[in-house]
Amino acid sequence: MNDQVRVQLMSLWAAVIVFISVCYLTGGFIKSVLVAAFVLGSCLLGLGRRWLFQGAFAIAILAIAVALGIPHPERWPDLFPGAFENARALVFR
Question: pTM for the complete prediction?
Answer without folding.
Answer: 0.75
